[in-house]
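Entry 14. Structure prediction run on the chain below.
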Amino acid sequence: MKRLFALMLALALLAIALPACAEGAEGPALTVTQENFHVYGTKTIYCYLYARVDNNTDVPLKLDTGAMNAYDADGNVVGSSTSMWRYAEYLQPGEHTYVYFNPRIEGVETPDQVVKYDLEINSREDSRKTTFCLPEVTVFEDDVAEGSWSNDYITSTVTNDADQNVFDLTIVRALLDDKGNIMYIDSDNMYSYKALTPGSSIIVRRPMNTSFRDYLDEKGYKAASVDCIAYVYATSPDQYTRGGAAPAVEGGDQADTVAETKTEAETTYTTLQKGSKGDDVMKLQQRLKELGYLKGSADGDYGKGTEKAVKAFQKRAGLKQDGVAGAAMQKALFADDAPAA
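Output returned:
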């Protein structure tokens, strides 16, 4: 009787497990082909988990969600995040992109007490958009002297070889060592109210975070190359064309056409405030960090620190200091002439 009961229990458990296994195995998925984990800090410790993600399937996939956990030697979770910085989310077969996580570490006193991590990347089949990549030339400038100090720069020259204006250009750069390990990731975005006109180029030069540069030097990392992806999203096959394949515009001059395009691409901002979460909050936080208002991580969670940073920017920009990132505040924040802290 005991054996029969054990057999019936095993069959019942198998019946429960089979659907879950089948669901987890459904459909093609993106592949993490390289990852690197950095932990550094003194009073406040953060981890940086960088990963390269490839579409090695034969169908278009969308980079959807991700999660990571960091552990101490006893297996305790000391840091975790579901806020993933992701770029070029729509990948055709053979394409790749980069992601990273940046959670705060709690419960340890020194970075070396964080000994391992795990990573999960989720994707799904999706062909609603494609990633239209632009040609670029990217270089790493090491130890550039500037007065009594020096900086390391990553500089990209991106050219619009399409027949149309491109808006919302995103540039992601992965600094790699001689073994292809990801040392550092940075990004820039022109946002949807700026256009790169056909045949024109833009040079984007960004210094590395000084403390992170010192950390890499201490660990013995040596930069060997930069992998850059400069892209915009296309929602139809003929949205962007090359080589004069664009349809002719009848009537009006080119200036009218450009003005009309800019109007159509005008950004609509979602009001963000304490308690808001998601990608829009992450973009807001990243911009606040760039301008020196936010000192913490860009985690996609609009908390007290983000609210304080918003108020500080509002004060500098002459706006109402309510800690709410409305349309007027965000338009001023993402402007080229936005005041730094």
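The chain has three domains: 31-125, 130-264, 279-333.
Filed with the rest of this week's runs.
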